[in-house]
Amino acid sequence: MKAMLAAFVAIAVISVGSNYILQQVGFSTQERASGAAVRLDD
User: Tens of pLDDT along 6-21?
Assistant: First the structure.
């Protein structure tokens, strides 16, 4: 049971951390999939 809870915590930390890092680096879906003619809300 401890291993499963540790795995859930690790998944949460990795997913939140990777989301933050990818947003900072510029690899978000909005920035990668939109062209110059697309208006996106900020």
Answer: 999 999 999 999 988 8
